[in-house]
Amino acid sequence: MLAGVLRTNRDFRRSFLADLTSALGSSMSTIAYPLLVLSLGGNAAQAGAVATVALVTRLGFRLPAGSLVDRWNRRRVMLTTDLVRLVAVATIPLVALWGSPSYAHLLLVAAVEGIATALFGPANTVLTRDVVAKEDLADALGMGQALQAAVSLAGPALGGVLFAADRMLPFAVDALSYAVSAALIRRITVRPTAAEPRAEDRGLTAGIRWLVRQRELFVILVYAAVINLVAAAIDVIVILELQANGASGWVIGPVLSCAGVGGIVGSLLAPWLVKRLSVPAILLGIGVGWTAVLAVFTLTFRPGVVAALLTLLMTLSPAAGVVVGQALFGQTPRHLIGRVSAATGLLLSGLAALGPVAAGTLLQGLGGAGTWAVLAVLTAAVTAGGWIPLRATGRLGAGAATEAGAEAEQPAEPAVVAHAAPPGPDPAAPAEAGTAGTDPGRSSDD
Description:
There is one protein chain. The protein is mostly helical. It has two domains: 1-194 and 412-446, MFS general substrate transporter like domains (Growth Hormone, Chain: A, Up-down Bundle), CATH 1.20.1250; 200-410, Growth Hormone, Chain: A (Up-down Bundle), CATH 1.20.1250.20. Helices cover 75% and strands 0% of the residues. The protein is globular and about 55 Å long.
C-alpha cells in the first residue's frame, strides 16, 4: 500500500527521497559535531553548545520562517535552503584540508544550518498538502513517520562509524546528502500558490492565532505536546538508569534501538489504524498505553522488560502523528499552512526540548522509580483531562474544513502531474507539487 503511493506519485517519491537523504545526512553529522569538538580539545559544555545553537536557531526562526514560506515559492525555498546547508556543512571538511576547523566556525555552521532548516520544514509541509490526495494522506503521513523512525535508528550509528573511519567523513556525507536532496527537489513540479489572505490572517503570529481559535484541534496539539515532552525525557532516563544499574554500552545501545524498531513498525501500521479507529480512540488509547508502561517501569527496570515495553510504546505513537497531520492538513486554510505548520512545530518541539532537562532534574531528586511515577502521573492526568474534549474531535481526521478555514478557502486538491504517472499524491514528502505547464521538471513560476 505504502509502496504503491511511492510508485505512482512521482513528485511525492522525489520529495520523500529528498527528505530521507538529507535527514539521514543530518542525523549522521549531529552525532559527529560533539565528537569533533571534543577531538579538537573542546570540553563537554562546548560540545553541547553546538547542538544547542542549532536547536535555538531552528526554534527561534520557526515563526518568521512560516510567514515567509506562506508568501514565497516553496520549491525555491526548499532548493535554496538545501544549497545553503550544502555550502555551510561542506566548509568543515574543506577547512580541514588546510588545518583544523575552529570552534567558532562550527558554531556558525550550526547556526546557518538551523536557520535554513527552519525555512525548509514549513515549505516541506506545504508540499505534502499539495501533492498528496486526500484519500492517500494517511499513507503519506505514515511514510513520513517511518522515515523519522528509520533515520533516528540508523543515522547515529552510521555517523559514529564514519567518524571512527575519518572525523571529516560524516560532514562530507551530510553535504553530499543536501546535494542529492536539491537535485531531487529541482525535479518536483510546483503550481502557483493560492488566495490572498484576509487582513486578520497576516503577521508572524497568524498561525498561532488561528490554532487557538480551533478549539478541538488545539486540544489535540496540547495533548500531543505533553506526550512529546514525556517521550523526550524517556531516552535520557533509560540511558542514565540502565547505566546506574550496571548495564554496559553493549546493552544500552540495543535497548534504545528497540524504540526505533517499534517506531518503524508503528509507522507502517499507522495508516491502517487511522482508517479504522476514531481520533479519540487513537489518542486516548495511546495515553492509556503510555501510562501503563511507565507505571510498570516504576516496579521493574530489567533490560529485557525495558526493550519490550519501549518497542510497544513506539509502536503505538506514530498513529498520533498521522492523526495530527491529517487534522492540520484537513483544516488549515491554504494561505496559512506555512505559519500554522511553524506554530505547531514550535509547540511540539519547544515543549519537548524541556524533556531532557526535566528528566535529569527528576532523576537526581527522586531516583528512577520516582521519576517514572511522575511521568506516569503526568500522562494519566493529561489523558484523563483530555477525555471529554478529545471525545469531541472524532471528525477532525476526516479532512473537513472548519468554518474559519472554509471562509478563507477550501483545502486545495493536489494537481495531477503532467507526465505518465497516474493522478494521485505521493505520500512521504511534504511538497508543493502540482502541474502547471508541460515540462514536468519545472514549476510554472520558475
